[in-house]
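Box S1 | Example of a co-folding query
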Amino acid sequence: MKVDVVLGLQWGDEGKGKIVDVLAKNYPVVARFQGGPNAGHSLLFDDKKFVLHTIPSGVFRKNAVNIIGNGVVIDPIIFREECLEIEKTGVPVRERIAISKKAHLILPTHRIIDAASEASKGASKIGSTLKGIGPTYMDKTGRNGLRVGDILAENFLERFHNLKSKHITFLKQFDFEYNAEEKETEWLSAIEFLKGFNLVDGEYFINHQLDDNKRVLAEGAQGSMLDVDFGSYPFVTSSTTICAGACTGLGIAPSRIGTVSGIFKAYCTRVGSGPFPTELNDNVGEELRKLGFEFGATTGRPRRTGWLDLVALKYAVMINGVEQLIMMKADVLDTFDTIKVAVAYKMNGVETHQIPFDTFATVEPVYKEFKGWKRDLTKITTESDLPFEFMTYVRFIEKEVGVPINIISLGPDREQTIMRTV
Ligand code: GDP
Ligand code: IMO
Ligand code: MG
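Box S1 (continued) | Returned holo structure for guanosine-5'-diphosphate
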């Protein structure tokens, strides 16, 4: 069996949580392979809403094992809060989760470094979620990090204090007030909580599942345009958010990757700093934010909004080898008279279809306009009932990008999902 991958093609918040929850009923194994509590994946079913940060979105499906892979970074405090919240609903979280011993731990001082570093950048800050993601991945690649498996070692406490001391030395360069001990007791008790979980050699675990003919669904976090290599550097996250990250973040060979599905919104959003060529700083942008309820699921920050950007979408499809598209939130456009889509950029008056290397380059989108469908799509359950103008929009995207849109989501609920046979 292979690992099917579902990932975001824009700047995150495409609706990955909803779709993974929908698809998970057909997968005995769901896996997160990168990122950490910077993610906020929303799920809605039976009138209940959940936001998951570290836990894979298959957790509400019976019989699905949810693996937190080695590529993920875990804050034990946030993880415990998440587990207890879900447990309240009667879901046996502990039975449904396995954690790779190679996943790295976010320490309280990682979060302090994140905050100090952002504060020192002033206007050029990344707009980090302040969850300690960057500093934790820095320690991972810098070979200083603490991993989940380390919590079982006798000298864990000593190693924790050693790393904390390194962080305190590092923090001397910043003019930043902090209390390194404030969260320590809570963090150490959350580490004890973590010990109650199935801590596994994730790479063996997942490969054995595949050998046993079990289908695995890998759930991306963030989006391709936030990838540390291919996103708008330095306004990116610190992990590999693209498909290749599923291999390194789970311990599977590239030949074991199955279908790659890319999720995108029918428009665009971005939270945090960095380029956003189709951004709308006007009433239309405000309308998108209001109708789409575009506020961060992790930080509550208002998301920046804009039209769909096909230059960026095609780029993400290329980098990931996307074979199926999943379109989200078209219902947010229901009341619009006109819908625009960027088909190219103009740079210094010259048209281009490429993302420029220079993150700070000014690009002007070249738009194609579509007539709005002006109908409520949220109750439509079959493809044949979808309005002509909407299908014109869908077909145009498919033709431009060269990949079929197999799933159309028209509302946040599990049920508001149309599976197409294209
Ligand atoms: P993720 O990080 O990719 O999982 O996405 P988020 O959960 O951060 O943001 C997506 C938001 O859109 C959530 O509030 C979802 O409940 C909501 N949502 C998902 N799909 C749809 C849809 O098709 N239509 C509408 N209106 N909302 C949706
Ligand atoms: P999900 O999985 C949207 C953004 C932050 C910031 C940049 C770096 O819900 O789609 P970080 O905390 O990772 O160092 O922040 O990345 N960012 C996200 N934006 N959705 C996310 O996750 C994000 N995770 C990080 O806003 O611009
Ligand atoms: Mg999100």
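Residues 156-171 form the longest helix (16 residues). The CA atoms of residues 70 and 102 lie 5 Å apart.
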